[in-house]
Amino acid sequence: MLLIMAVPGAGLLTRLHLCAQRRTRVQRLIVRLLSCPGTVAEDLRRDEQPSGIVETGFEDKIPRKRFSEMQNERREQAQRTVLIHCPEKISENKFLKYLSQHGPINNHFFYESFGLYAVVEFCRKESVGSLQNGTHTPNMAMETAIPFRSRFLSLKLKNQTSEQSCIQSSNQLPPSNRKLFELICYAESIDDQLNTLLKEFQLTEENTKLRYLTCSLIEDIAAAYFPDCVVRPFGSSVNTFGKLGCDLDMFLDLDETRNLSTRKTSGNFLMEFQVKNVPSERIATQKILSVIGECLDHFGPGCVGVQKILNARCPLVRFSHQASGFQCDLTTNNKIALTSSELLYIYGALDSRVRALVFGIRCWARAHSLTSSIPGAWITNFSLTMMVIFFLQRRSPPILPTLDSLKTLADAQDKCIIEGNNCTFVRDLNRIKPSGNTETLELLLKEFFEYFGNFAFNKNSINIRQGKEQNKPDSSPLYIQNPFETSLNISKNVSQSQLQKFVDLAQESAWILQQEDTHRPSVSSNQPWGLAAILLPSVPNRGSLTKKKRKRSANERVKNLLESLKSNRTANFTETNEKRTISTQT
Ligand code: GTP
Ligand code: MG
Questions:
Q1: Where are the beta strands (DSSP E) in 338-436?
Q2: What is the 3-state secondary structure (H, E, C) of 424-440?
């Protein structure tokens, strides 16, 4: 017998032990080649996670809908959806039959994250209310449950029958690096490798649904204070550049609440709400986030590790949503970031090469520790995406239009000013002419490294609004103009040494790819090649080499490297070697 209960808090369940798969010869070789700590190699040694079982078909689709349309549709779906923590052994048919008492189900899926969870989307919103009315708060033997009515529920079996479970679980994690390497080593071309990487890492339909559902659950909690609020996902969850496992950036939108008081009324009267005033927008933001943070901490089912980071440049509440496994950042008064996400969504949808290249570059940067999940002097994924967009604007003919040209295509509906910043650009994808450029991903990958390996970072800034290099307005090592707040640099945090590391690695990767034009290892040789080769740890003595390198012109460096590597490269890929130790000494 099935019984649904409200979830009193976060329940810790035993993690599933997953069998490591038998290693093939290629895998063994790759593990030997990639044994440097702090890199892809380190991750490679971890046990393999199961790969996605559910094929959604979402992977190959490039969104053509307007961003706002897509967001509204997904939000409405999420409002008809519940999240249910299930017993390990459950009959899917009986479970669905039981829930169907409350109304027809549109779709559902199961996933595992410290236990088994079901995401169930009803056809009608009323079904959720009906299900909640039949749900009760649990009686705890030792603790007291704080009664809280949400759409995060727990299914209990009244009688412990031994149900035969044969549930298909949707995967919410990216493939292990070992699996990825295997896949890309067997690909037929670098284009194929980049497309494989994209397919394996991009957010699945289920993962996207889970992200919108999590926002919707948080919106219910925030609605206790602000009934008209909307919690919207932004950043990589929605800009088409998100990778499975990326954080969930949320924006608490109070515009609806604010607009209620500014709506025009007829006649000579104007009614206003009595409100409390504070000296600045920033203080208002801090106060709002402070109470929402408290509320999530005390009453939010599954919200753990709540941190209020209110003194940051952009105040936020950070927490883990345990059931979905998402690390969440909740902000408010951050509308420009939502607009940036919309702009990236458009760029990602305009040409199928954009996302493949961005995923490849992000993965390359992560593999070489150029990016990090910890804030610091590193380049961020957002900055890297801007660099790829800029590079694609610089191709001949351009693959992507400049932001200024997207602005000229805008109509009256697209007009948008946020805090005095002009955020106008065309929102309808069908009004943007596709590029006539037919360059392959392989060429673009090489040229990307070549371009930024030789970019005059010391004097030029990157600017996707105009799509051309400009003089840097200050001495920051890396200057990437914020597309909307044009006086700001989005990579102000990047140190000279991190930038130099990026440049050195870009030069090295350009060289490796160039080399392969003449000496591409055959598939049967079991050697990492193409994308796999540039994800490998770099040479151990690069630091000392860098100083010498800086003194020479790029061409001279490449020539010298070529000569020394020709003789060393093959030898250093021998099976007795623990590391990839291409010597670049000249
Ligand atoms: P992930 O690394 O996959 O999380 O990528 P992300 O794009 O989600 O980056 P992040 O979570 O760091 O930031 C979320 C969003 O905030 C970005 O997509 C941008 O829209 C915005 N953002 C991040 N950093 C900056 C910045 O330095 N300046 C501005 N203006 N916006 C930023
Ligand atoms: Mg993010």
A1: 417-418, 421-422
A2: CCCCCHHHCCCCCCCCC
Distance 382 CA to ligand 1 centre (A): 5
Whether the pLDDT of residue 345 is over 90: the answer is yes
Distance 41 CA to ligand 2 centre (A): 24
Neighbours of ion ligand 2 (CB under 5 A): 235-236, 247, 249
User: In the block, which residue shows the tokens 């409002």?
Assistant: 79
What is the number of the ligand closest to the CA of 365? 1
Chain mean pLDDT for the chain: 82
- Find the 19 Cα to ligand 2 centroid distance in Å: 31
In sequence order, the 6+-apart residues with CB closer than 8 A to the CB of 20 are 47, 48
Q: Residues 181, 183, 187, 193: what is their CA dihedral angle, to the nearest 10 degrees?
A: -70
pLDDT at 438 over 80: yes
The position carrying tokens 């883990």 is 320
Coil, helix or strand at residue 316: strand
Structure tokens at 42: 């380190």
User: Cis omega before residue 397 (within 30°)?
Assistant: yes
